[in-house]
Amino acid sequence: MGRSGILLLLLLLLAGPGVGVAWRPPKGKCPPRCSCSKDSALCEGSQDLPESFSPTLLSLSLVRTGVTQLKAGSFLRVPSLHLLLFTSNSFSVIEDDAFAGLSHLQYLFIEDNEIGSISKNALRGLRSLTHLSLAHNHLEVLPRFLFRGLETLTHVDLRGNPFQCDCRILWLLQWMPTVNASVGTGTCAGPAALTHMQLRHLDPKTFKCRAIELSWFQMVGESALGVESFSYQGEPHIILAQPFAGRCLILSWDYGLQRFRTEDELPAPSVVSCKPLVLGPRLFVLAARLWGGSQLWARPGPDLRLAPMQALAPRRLLRPNDAELLWLDGQPCFVVADASKAGSTTLLCRDGPGFYPRQSLHAWHRDTDAEALELDGRPHLLLASASQRPVLFHWFGGRFERRTDIPEAEDVYATRHFQAGGDVFLCLTRYIGDSMVMRWDGSMFRLLHQLPSRGAHVFQPLLIARDQLAILGSDFAFSQVLRFDPDKGLLEPLQELGPPALVAPRAFAHVTLAGRRFLFAACFKGPTQIYQHHELDLSA
């Protein structure tokens, strides 16, 4: 039996034994162009939605009417309806609460119409609905939560619609396996790659419906060469190396103003790096300075201020360019990359109350950057310099020993690493030439791809929430944000940072607090900019 035969049978059942016997309703109760029996009505060709029906009507069919839209409360005068059918009508929109008051409605058939849009609350209140058909309309998408509250549904027919099988249809694919109803879904009309594909054959896991955006939030007035995030006493903090202001500036979150504010600072003329270390209640800050000697500052407890504690290797650190924190044999250590000809990159480890030189590394090579990482379960150190390719050291016998260098990587200014899918990746910054992304193959780093990066001093990976990002800063163009695609194993462009544009960015850091995520961009020739990280649901 076809669909029209089934609908006719339903009409006969609902009409009862009086069908076929002319029923004379009270005057004005059967509108023009409608045929009425005891409990049912069929209207064909009317220009407006009829209003003067009996309030005890059980079934209503509207065929080829001139109604252009179903507005809220269209059927409040017939609260007893059990069946409502629309066929071959010209209306294209169904508004919120169009079927309000029909708490007894069990069968709703809206078929072969020109409906292109249905509001998300259009079906609200149909708590007795068991059969729903939206078949053979012009629906490309369905709003999320359209079926919310329809707990009694047993049959849903969505066939014959030109569904666009993009992120807007994802919620439907996720809903179908959870509902105790048979669902006829039909096929996709687009995009081209999915045309004619059955909706029921689509895998929700293949849809990429989450996007991110970095939007400007706040500015910190002074320029900076470095920025680091750390947690102290359970609260996230940020520290900026501000050479022109001559200080290391510590910021914390002001919960009242909902902004970052200055918490503390320490004087550090010509500072290039402020590296924090938290050991219980104690906070240490290594201030690496171009002139005047590098220093270690300490805060013994949360109620005390930072105070100078120790001068660090004054004969070895003549022109520091970078500082990194690493743990070796259970002890905290700093490595400071020195860019002078007479000095040397130095490993400083904790010994008693202070930090003292443990090893000199890479003398005479004018190192510009140090990066601590773990490979094959052992600590490693990667040094970039102005005189040769980056060199990889491994921790062996209580000291760092040279292991290998990075092939085809001349003129690398800095290196940063990240981990994804069990692999270790390396971002190499080049001021002249293309910056590079490499992957560790168990014995050496091998090139994956290159990125144009004229004027770059920083190519820094950051894991923010679930997103592995990398930011390629530039002195001559907009800084680029890239996101790692785990399926392709590559970094792909996401967005440009700005406005405001970053002026000579040198370092990036992120911090998470109060359910919000922020990105800090330290700029050498302009103020530090703060961006907020937003997650966007493209299936909403």
Overview of this protein structure:
This protein is mostly beta strands. It has two helices and 41 strands. The strands form ten sheets. It has an eight-stranded mixed β-sheet with strand order 1-2-3-5-7-9-10-12, with helices on one face. A four-stranded antiparallel β-sheet has the order 14-41-40-39, with no helix packed on it. A four-stranded antiparallel β-sheet has the order 15-16-17-18, with no helix packed on it. Strand 37 and strand 38 form a beta hairpin. The longest helix has 13 residues, at 3-15. The model is unreliable at 4-28 (pLDDT under 50). It comes from Marmota marmota marmota. It is found in: Secreted. EAR repeats lie at residues 213-255, 259-301, 305-352, 354-397, 399-442, 444-486, 490-535.
